[in-house]
Amino acid sequence: MRSLLLVFLLLPSVFPIKCWIGFDDKVDEGDCKGTVKGSNFCFKARLFLLFSDQQMPGGHIHKDCGYGQCEEEGCKNGTIVCCCSTGDYCNAAPSHLIVTPLVAAAAAAWLRF
Asked: One digit per residue, pLDDT tens: the chain, 113 residues?
């Protein structure tokens, strides 16, 4: 019975995490396999490219597996690089979409009281 429980506990670590991989809106699904540091993470980074900033003033979004980029969950350097391991395709939403509901909830709570 204990060995069966151990198998079920280890089972999620056997399957690779699935992440979105690509730039801006041109992304595909991908499996992040391997034992390299960060292979169980997805990451999303906002990049500012010298010549394309005039076309994309907010920068470009790069999504990929966290190989060599991620050691822990969360964002670093503000919202420039975000790493996540909470589930498949966790790097899907742009970071500004997370802030919008929080601001709306805070405003609603403030108006209520």
From this structure: 555 433 344 444 456 789 999 988 888 888 888 777 778 888 888 877 666 555 566 778 889 988 888 888 888 766 677 888 878 888 886 544 444 455 556 666 777 76
Closest CA to 19 of 35, 41, 36: 41
The amino acid present at 29, given as its one-letter code, is E
Interatomic CA distance for residues 13 and 22, integer angstroms: 24
- Rounded CA-CA distance 66/39 in Å is 6
Joined together, the tokens standing for residue 96 give 């500004």
CATH superfamily of the domain spanning 15-112: CD59 (2.10.60.10)
Q: Where are the domains of the chain?
A: 15-112
Q: Give the angle 81-85-86 at the CA atoms, nearest 5°.
A: 120
